[in-house]
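Section 5.1 Outputs to date
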Amino acid sequence: MIGLSMLNQVGITHMNDTNVISFNMPNEYRDGTETLAYSYRLQISMHPRDDYNQDIASMDGDVLVLAGSEDESFQAEKYDDVFDVHYQTEVVLVDGLSHFALIHNEQAHETIAEWLISQ
């Protein structure tokens, strides 16, 4: 990660598909849908850039930020403050859900559908 990050700082990006994280999931828990390795590109894409405030402020149009109140990856309770720089942002925390639980949660899907219809 550090070496590729340094190379990216000087514009060398052709190795960003190199795996930097791998997971040793036992075969008995695999179903064929899991991601067992993250490339540098994938890993970096999951994190905000250093100047995320400028990125948020420059967003065009309405934005829905949906997160679980029990997100173990980010401090979802602080999203209101973080996204306050973009007045067209609605932050919704779905009670009791973890970071990835939103993907399969009916309440989250309904919230997204209602928000899209209201646009």
